[in-house]
Specification:
Shape: elongated
Number of helices: 5
Radius of gyration: 21 Å
Structural class: mainly alpha
Oligomer: single chain
Largest sheet: none
Number of strands: 0
Helix content: over 70%
Amino acid sequence: MEQNYKNHIRFNPAYHFVAVPITFLAFCCAVYAFLKHSDFTHGLMVIGFLLLIVALFFARYFSLRVQDRAARAEERLRYFMLTGKALPTELRMGQILALRFASDEEFVALTDQALREKLSPKEIKLLIKNWRADYYRI
């Protein structure tokens, strides 16, 4: 399937639709059991599920930050290859991540427009005419 603005958001079903909801549900059950029984074992269950939720959150957060760094490096290199100049430092990470979907033909002009008009990532993505797919980021 060809990627575009309408379908570029990706989910990992095992993470987004299984692990996170089940862990949250288990946490809610543990809180209910603790409120009903108020003993040490149920308190430990609440703490355990809370720690699991925090671990799930940070596992996702850290992996996205690594992907952001890699994408920024790729776009800096691409901009340099196309212009011979460094990617403007005024660009925010969200703008850089949105610009990665722009084809080489429109990348530089769209970068300049994003800086000049302070475009949001959504606005940048909507302006892209020739979508450059990214099938690896989740």
